[in-house]
Automatic annotation (TrEMBL):
Protein name, entry field: SMP-30/Gluconolactonase/LRE-like region domain-containing protein
InterPro entries reported in the protein's UniProt record: 6-blade_b-propeller_TolB-like
Disordered: region residues: 23-58
PROSITE patterns noted in UniProt: PROKAR_LIPOPROTEIN
Species this chain originates from: Spirosoma aureum
SUPFAM superfamilies the record matches: NHL repeat (SSF101898)
Length: 372
């Protein structure tokens, strides 16, 4: 979420205009169709042995579903596919994965078998509605995604002057649900995005969480940057870009205060896990745990949270107990538990079977995680 802070600061100073970790560059206006070369970088080495089955001692099992560590733009299967900074993803009802391919300015579709195709976008930068390659995306700030009740992907994105919510159907039809000016008195940008059980849409904006309902945009919680719990109007957030609902209607928020907050249906904001404004990677319960960069959250059917936390994947139970299920230091290694390496786990998604998927941005791959 430090990415959003940098981006918003830049917009305010330069244009009166967060993303996450500051490790990627957004496409620049005027970018044309990206190259299809598959030799732009040398991929890091990975383990080549067959991963073991999950156990209580090995932790989660991580494999690479698509891509191989080399950036580029290629539709193909598994390691033959190429991405250029995959920054966000979400699963549809059939367990296909929608991927925001940031610097290719496209939406890619990855099947459960790892078959990669391009759903929408043509590589040029803009905000143009249409079908398939006739649509274009700006994706400043990295783009954040969720799925609505009809199975469409919803995407938050920003240009230099406007914040928009785009809809992408399974057929690749792209439309704009709302678009508002960026600046003083208006949103500083649209970032984290999620849908509530009743279908309402929640969007993060600097220090606020906004509600989009029936075409109207209002402030739901926060508004002033900082850290404070309490009622919706008393609460303060700092780039609350990781948003996820459970089935009971609780909204979980990960922000740049390096902690996870819980907002109940009654409108009470409290700390679930982490030490506010203390950066780290300690496991533990409640404030005994620490986080480094909570980029993305998902909730499973049992009410457990999973967080993409920089180079780690963390599990948070409903009582706030945090454990690291995969990852340790930066790198690119498949395997089990702490033997796994990520290089900017930028976004996390979950399918109907409880399988997790991670957009491993700097490794240019989509990773698959089977938990215990």
């Amino acid at each position: 979420m430090k990415f959003a802070s940098i981006y918003i600061f830049t917009l305010i100073i330069g244009l009166l205009l967060a993303g996450c970790s500051g490790k990627t560059d957004s496409p620049s206006p005027g970018t044309t169709t990206p190259p299809t070369s598959t030799t732009t970088t040398t991929p890091p080495s990975t383990t080549s042995t067959t991963p073991p089955s999950p156990t209580a001692t090995t932790g989660a099992i991580v494999t690479t579903l698509a891509g191989n560590g080399t950036e580029g733009y290629v539709d193909a299967t598994g390691s033959a596919a190429r991405f250029k900074n995959p920054s966000a993803l979400v699963c549809d009802k059939a367990d296909n994965i929608y991927v925001v391919d940031l610097n290719n300015a496209r939406i890619r579709l990855v099947s459960p078998a790892g078959v990669v195709t391009t759903l929408a976008g043509n590589g040029s930068v803009g905000i143009t509605d249409g079908t398939g390659a006739s649509a274009s995306f700006y994706l400043a700030g990295g783009g954040y995604v969720c799925r609505d009740a009809s199975g469409n992907m919803l995407l938050s994105e920003n240009s230099t002057t406007r914040a928009s919510i785009r809809q992408v159907t399974p057929a690749g039809i792209v439309s704009t649900l709302t678009s508002v000016p960026i600046g003083v008195g208006n949103p500083l940008g649209f970032y984290g995005i999620t849908t509530a059980p009743n279908g309402d849409l929640y969007i993060s904006d600097g220090g606020a969480i906004r509600l989009f309902r029936n075409g109207n945009l209002t402030i739901f919680a926060g508004g002033t940057r900082g850290y404070a719990n309490g009622t919706l109007s008393e609460a303060q957030f700092s780039n609350p870009d990781a948003l996820a609902f459970d089935t009971d209607g609780n909204l979980y928020v990960g922000d740049a205060n390096d902690c996870i907050r819980k907002i109940t249906p009654a409108g009470v904001v409290s700390l679930l896990a982490g030490q506010p404004k203390v950066n780290g990677n300690a496991d533990g319960k409640g404030s005994a745990a620490t986080f480094s960069s909570i980029n993305s959250l998902v909730v499973d059917k049992q009410g457990n949270l999973y967080a993409a936390d920089s180079y780690l994947i963390r599990k948070v139970t409903p009582d706030g107990t945090v454990t690291t299920i995969a990852g340790s230091s930066p790198g690119y290694v498949d395997g089990a538990g702490t033997a796994v390496r990520f290089n900017n786990a930028r976004s996390i998604a979950i399918d109907s079977k409880g399988i997790l998927y991670v957009a491993d941005l700097s490794n240019q791959v989509i990773r698959k995680i089977v938990t215990q």
